[in-house]
Amino acid sequence: xxxxxxxxxxxxxxxxxxxxxxxxxxxxxxxGDTANLPYGDKSEEQIYELTKKAIGELFARxxxxxxxxxxxxxxxxxxxxxxxxLKEEFPDRKILGVIxxxxxxxxxxxxxxxxxxxxxxxVDSGKYGRELEKLDDSIELVEVAxxxxxxxxxxxxxxxxxxxxxxxxxxETREGDVVILxxxxxxxxxxxxxxxxxxxxxxxxxxxxxxxKLSQYLTKHTEIAEKLSNTGKREIVLTKHRPDYDxxxxxxxxxxxxxx
Length: 260
Hints:
Blueprint: E1 2-7, H1 10-22, E2 28-32, H2 44-60, E3 63-68, H3 71-76, H4 78-89, E4 94-96, H5 99-108, E5 113-118, H6 120-125, H7 127-135, E6 140-145, H8 149-154, H9 158-172, E7 178-181, H10 190-197, E8 202-204, H11 206-220, H12 222-225, E9 234-238, H13 243-253, E10 257-258
Helix pairs in contact: 1-11, 1-13, 5-7
């Protein structure tokens, strides 16, 4: 059986690239809902229905475990899907998000203050704050919506996105803060941000968090790991063909565009 990854666009591919590098033996299928990106400006109900459809597609492609590599979907839909859809229709499958592992990583830094940049839907959901409060209510969390970044990154305007992110973080951060890149698209900003702030802040990026956390999860849950196939297969499914993604899928995973 396969490990599935779902995101609305480019960001999830960046996470999968890192996971496949760390755990190359497993078979992976990526489902990118490029026809409906971005998710950050959609309603809660729209996000739920789109996420449910994507997970159903991955389960139909023999995925035992699905990683929702979309912070907006993780914030809005995962708990509901786990409590209803999964229990009622796929009790033998698993859905995991990216928010709780990221919060755990933040706590492990020992920081006293963190700045989250994310989509408007992720910030408005309050999911990061709620999960942090469950685990450590002593950390101050500043949440800043940066809805302009995903469209810029998807258009390949990385330098403009970097400048916009730097402007926000220079205003919001203090010495010793942790910065959480709360959208997988923002992985492409990581190196520039880290170079700019040097050691004054710590950057948490989900391409570093998720491979480590998934490895720990599979080590703990051997009953799942033992069912996963080990042929090193990579498959990419997009809901709308994006020619610019053809190069990325080939470069990242050796994959090809698989039409619906």
